[in-house]
Structures are given as structure tokens and as C-alpha cells.
Amino acid sequence: MTAAGAAALHGTLHRKMSGLTGTAEALAELVVRPPWSAVVVTVVFAGLARWVRGVSFGGAIAGAAVCFVLYVGVGFGAFVVLVLVFALTWVSTRFGYRRKEKLGTAERLDGRSALQVLANLAVAAGCGALSAFSTAKAVFLLALSAALSEAAADTVSSELGQARSAKARLITTGEEVAVGTDGGVSWPGTLAGIAAAAAVSLVCVLTGLVPFRWLGISITAAFAGTIADSFLGALLERRKLLNNDAVNFLGTLIAAATASLLV
């Protein structure tokens, strides 16, 4: 083996060992410092979410699991962002509730189910967990930011669009459709969704999860996810090929993947 070849091999082994060392250190930190604070925060958060009927009993359990993973894997900053997403969801769901009841599009008063919670937050939780053990931590945190921003944007745009718009247009054809139609979009809903995505992404920056230079990427990826969500709704959900939970999950996944590719 030449000297250059030996040097290259040494560099490769060094990088791999550094990655393994980083993973081992992360695991050791979790073992040495049991996340009791995460347990307390998770229980309180889930209890309050259930108390205000933002989630059902099953939704509270699913939300607690997501909260625990984000708090342990990422830290308090991720919890702050999660609370913001919940608050935006809760407020927008109750905004114009009587009108949405008449339209037949209102959410149940008992709150969102476990499947609904996981459909919106599972991708973010996965990114948070992976960030704790990966050498590409910054990229996973950006993906987390985009996924949570998309989840907030999708809910806010849908809920406020139903509350404020008389009609919507199908994203695939521009055809005028009833408010609440799968794949239907409106200007009030779209603008509200962009504002929600910007708010969540900005808080991710302010809490130190994402550097300021990536703020635009997070917002752009979240918006791309909401557009993809609308296309999936128009093309697949209307034909009963996917349900709303599957569409929401794919929307957050597309947002996270888009953010990763834009870095």
C-alpha cells in the first residue's frame, strides 16, 4: 500500500471512529442523566392538552410519547416549539367553530385522536430521536423544524380557511369547490398557513434548534409540504386511496425531506 493510500485509509477509519464515539457519548449521557425532568414535563403537558380538550385520551398518550422523545433527544427548545404547534392547532380549530359545524367539517369536541397526533408529529419525533445519535445533527434538526412548521401550517390553513372562506379552489384544476373539500385551497387559508410556518420556524431559530441562515429553508420546505398535502388530498384522498392521517403524515415527511435536500 502506498503512503497516500495508507493516509486515506487512516482518515476514513478516523471519521468512522469519531462517529461511533459521538453515538456512544450520546447514549452514555442519556444513561448517566435519567430524564426525570422530561417525565415531569411530559405528564404535565399531556394532562393540560387533555384538560383543554385539544386531544382525546389516546391523543394525550401519543402526544406524551412525542413530547418525551423531543425533550430527551433534542432538549427544552424542542418542547417550546411543540407547545407552540399545539397552541396554534388548538386556537385555529376553535376559531369559527360554529360555522365549521354547519359545514360538517368541525373537529370532534373531544380533541384529536392518537392517529391524528402521530400523523402530524411522528416525523418530527423521528428526526429528533435521530439527531441525538447522528453526526448530521444539524440537518435532522432542520428537518424537525420543517416537519413541525408544516404540521402547524397545514392545520392552521385548513381550519382558518374553513372559518373564513366561502369557497375554495381545487389545487389541481382551479375548479371551485365547497370549503373543506380534500385538495381545496383558499387565499385566507394559504396566507394563514404561511404565517404559521414562519412563526414555528422562527421559534426554532430563537430556541437555538436551527441557525438563522436556515430560517428560509425551513419555511420553504414547510410550504412545499403543505402544497404536496393539498395535491395528495385532491389526487388520492378524494378517491379514497389515502385517508387524511396518511396525507398529513406524508406532508410532514415531504417537508422534512425537502429541508434536508435544500441544505
Question: What does this entry show, briefly?
Answer:
75% of the residues lie in helices and 3% in strands. With 263 residues, it is mostly helical.
Largest beta-sheet details: 3 strands, antiparallel
Q: How many H/I helical runs?
A: 10
The radius of gyration computed from the alpha-carbon positions, rounded to a whole number of angstroms, is 20 Å
Summed up, the domain count is 1
Distance between the termini: 37 Å
Percent range for helical residues?
A: over 70%
Query: How large is the share of residues in beta strands?
Result: under 5%
SSE topology string: HHHHHHHEEEHHH
Uncertain segments are 1-33
Shape: globular
Tell me the total number of β-strands. 3
Biggest sheet strand line-up: 2-1-3
Structural class: mainly alpha
Overall pLDDT? 86
Structure, described:
The chain has 263 residues and is mostly helical. It has one domain (19-262). 75% of the residues lie in helices and 3% in strands. The chain contains ten helices and three strands. It has helices at residues 3-32, 36-51, 57-73, 76-94, 97-103, 114-131, 137-164, 187-206, 215-237, 244-262, and strands at residues 167-170, 176-178, 184-185. The chain has a three-stranded antiparallel sheet with strand order 2-1-3. Helix 6 packs antiparallel against helix 7 and helix 7 packs across helix 9 (215-237). The longest helix is centred in the N-terminal third of the chain and has 30 residues, at 3-32. The chain is globular and about 50 Å long. It starts with a helix and ends with a helix. Mean pLDDT is 86; it is low at 1-33.
